[in-house]
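Question:
When you can, review this sequence-structure pair and walk me through the tokens.
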Amino acid sequence: MAVMHPRESSHEPSARSPFAGCAILVTALLVMIFLVAFSVLTLFRQYNEIAKFTGEKPTQVDISQLDGQEPALNHLAVSLETFRQQLTGDGEAALSLTPDEMNLAIAAYEPFKELRGTFRVISADDGLLRITISFPLNGKPRLTREDEDGWITSDPRFLNGTLIARPALLKRELVLKLDNLEVPGASVPREFIEQMSPYRIAERYLTHPVLGPAMAQLTSVEVSDGNLRLFRKPGQTPADVISDGQVDSAGNRFFLILGGAACLFLVFAGIIIFIGLRAKRHNTH
């Protein structure tokens, strides 16, 4: 008859116990649930904050009338064509636009039609542009049902107010660095302004056959003497360039917070697993 060694037992070693595998699976599920819940909670909190300074309906932003504007339109066309021809050469190129000329260009030229009724320059002073805006934003998500098919939509919100910004260059693109957002009867959080800046108003024109190459040749942009001034100076390196890091910093902030929370949760879960494994090993001995 075989004699069982005193150290042998009918119990398997703790390393073979299914506890560790189950614990890892449970932890993974808990981490997934935590990340989803944290993301949803953060988004809804953000939507609630946005609702405090946005409206349910857009405001009417004036569009410059073209009737009776033939002299101004002709002057604008000559200025733009002169600038275009300057850019085809190797020398200096410069273009100055008043707020009225910028608004007239938005009303008259097809590439700017998406800005009509949502964007109007009201002044150009002290290096800053003041712009009346009515921008659509995504509101709080909600589930809708129609014909027994459900999907997630959102209630639209509108950012109606005054944008105060400084024009700048982002590589081959003209952008607006936001100094402030003024909304009647509400205060816009600084975090939202920083997240929106730089506002890439000209991103849609990067692939335009005329506007894209023209922007790519700019070396400086400024606001002075009541005008927006665009320059191309041969041999000059663009002085006011925004880095990709500045563009991505606001968006990365959310992921850093999410990643930090996930790491803390994983550390906590790891400690729980470690304690459980030690307890299991102790019980098997």
